[in-house]
Amino acid sequence: MSRIDSAFARCKEANRAAFIPFLMGGDPSLDMSLALLNALPNAGADIIEIGIPFSDPMADGPVIQEAGLRALAAGTTLEKVLAMVAQFRTAHATPIVLMGYLNPVYVYGYDKFAKDAAQAGVDGIILVDAPPEEAAEIEPVLSANGIAFVRLIAPTSVADRLPLLAKGAQGYLYYISITGITGAGSATPQMIETNLAEIRKVTTLPVCVGFGIKTPADVASFAGLADGVVVGSTIVKKIADTDGDVAQVSALVRSLAGGCQRT
Amino acid sequence: MPCILEVEREYQASKTDTAFKAELADLLEHFVGRPSPLYFAERLTEYLGGAQVWFKREDLNHTGAHKINNCVGQILLARRMGKKRIIAETGAGQHGVATATVCARFGMECIIYMGARDIERQKPNVFRMRLLGAKVIPVTSGAQTLKDAMNEALRDWVTNVADTYYLIGTVAGPHPFPVMVRDFQRVIGDELKIQMQERLGRLPDSLIASVGGGSNAIGLFYPFLNDDVKIWGVEAAGHGLDKQHAASLSKGSPGVLHGCRTYLLQTVDGQIDEAHSISAGLDYPGIGPEHAWLKDTGRVEYVGITDDEALSAFQATCKLEGIIPALECAHALAQVIKLAPALPRQHVMVMNLSGRGDKDIFTVAGALGFDL
């Protein structure tokens, strides 16, 4: 069983949704980012998403855009993000899913990336601008190296794209709870309950929700519906506001993760 | 994905819709003013002393550039799709003005994303867009130029997808935009073929166009790709190809940006670089994917022209032909000036004069040391 599968199985047994915090790799610096990453498992992270910074993050709101720019200014590259994961992996078994855009991975080279990422201990990757129609070159290379290509499902895709998105999907499915960019608007459980039910008809994989989830109460309201809840912008903003203070960021993550316990 | 799949479906359907095609043809004739003239640049030809230089006068279109050809096509498509809110990115502002124009003509809400730096460089066009009823939103992220405006427009589109149509201005972005924009711009080359037959009874020997995203160039080139015609695309070499420039084909490497795989100016780590050109309309670190293909197959030869070369071609064309060209096509003019003298008089060279330069007079004045 993969680390991702085990994480969801453990959460299911404990009657809670998996808590999946996101942070930008290398924000505010590589060292501080590694320190934050190392603190996340004890703060209640079941799976961790690490952003690969990109100069043109067209699906991200201002909070994550700025985090990416800080990371790039601090000298972060995809290679250094992988090195950070490798260091994390020496002490932790928490699954790591990278999230970003196709170009840095394309330029790195799919084969080399898949091998290096697997070696570093990466469990999955989400590439915002690589829909299944365009992923035929990268997906098999990743899966041959044991890396799950996690697919995004937008609310607008529910009507007629679910069979395509679910077919051959790996790890988990990531449902985007709002139509829009990261950190925008606020998701409401009513909006997504129907859509999650539709998604469950086409997959047996865990289904997680993200985008627009901001508070422990938000997390709690989604924990009963989804197998995992992703919070990004709120955590990234705390990192920016506290200049990467591990204690304060951990406290926020702990309170958000608390929302995942089902009653 | 659903939004671009919807655009593709509707675009394919529109191609066989005779009412759609008739309305487009009518707009091109009576609103845009097509066909655009094919003009023999007699004094420039004499001055260069070689090949005959002809201009395809896209600068005489309504709104002053080729951009309107694509806009009338896409606005009809947007209306067909029932969209009421139009968004667009713009660099030099020509596409923004053309979009604002068709939105006014069809009574649609118009939001233009424009890099804050470009807003500074292109004040007259910003004011034009506002007069036409568009809301111009300054983009302050990244380099504050065209690529960042495109990022912001894409963010808007995914947020407001239900009622919004993204009217992309060049042959880049996700499919079907590169193909669709080419199809709406190929009227330039199709007309030229007919005009050449009428005027000279033959094909031209060579074609030249400036390339930023690549829409005026592909519009001119496309109908001639299978003909025995030499084709040059001219990129902005900025301060020089070994310095800051916008020459994605000459100096870029393959990558993926804005939904297409093409040549990009980027770092070894796949971060997109900032492009530089005196012409805001060429200031894009990517290039339409069809141009990438034409480069790889060798069908089109792509060369670079610096800011300085473009500036002197700009001035030469003003004085010799009584035409103030856009700085974008001043790059193509500079290539004409380089090539024509060595070619025989029977060689017929057609350059796409893709836009007029009124919008650029402040930039040119600044570069030449005048204070307006």
Description:
The complex is a heterodimer of chains A (263) and B (372). With 263 residues, chain A is of the alpha/beta class. Chain A has one domain: Aldolase class I (TIM Barrel, Alpha-Beta Barrel). Chain A has 12 helices and 9 strands. Chain A has a 9-stranded parallel beta sheet. With 372 residues, chain B is an alpha/beta fold. Chain B has 2 domains: 121 residues, Rossmann fold (3-Layer(aba) Sandwich), CATH 3.40.50.1100; 215 residues, Rossmann fold, CATH 3.40.50. Helices cover 46% and strands 18% of the residues of chain B. Chain B has 16 helices and 12 strands. In chain B, the strands form 3 sheets. A 6-stranded mixed beta sheet of chain B has the order 1-2-12-7-8-11, with helices on both faces. A 4-stranded parallel beta sheet of chain B has the order 5-4-3-6, sandwiched between helices. In chain B, α10 packs across α11 and α14 crosses α15. The chains are: A alpha/beta (263), B alpha/beta (372).
What layout of secondary structure does this protein have?
The complex is a heterodimer of chains A (263) and B (372).
Chain A: H1 3-13, E1 18-24, H2 30-39, E2 48-51, H3 62-73, H4 78-89, E3 96-100, H5 102-108, H6 110-120, E4 124-127, H7 139-144, E5 148-149, E6 151-153, H8 162-166, E7 173-176, H9 189-202, E8 207-210, H10 216-223, E9 228-231, H11 233-241, H12 246-258
Parallel strand pairs in A: 1-2, 1-9, 2-3, 3-4, 4-5, 6-7, 7-8, 8-9
Chain B: H1 2-15, H2 18-32, E1 38-40, H3 42-48, E2 52-57, H4 67-80, E3 85-90, H5 94-106, E4 109-115, H6 116-121, H7 123-131, E5 135-139, H8 146-159, E6 164-166, H9 177-185, H10 187-200, E7 206-210, H11 215-221, E8 230-238, H12 248-251, E9 253-257, E10 260-264, H13 289-297, E11 301-306, H14 307-321, H15 327-339, E12 348-353, H16 361-368
Parallel strand pairs in B: 2-12, 3-4, 3-6, 4-5, 7-8, 7-12, 8-11
Antiparallel strand pairs in B: 1-2, 9-10
Helix pairs in contact in B: 2-4, 3-14, 4-5, 4-9, 5-7, 9-11, 10-11, 14-15
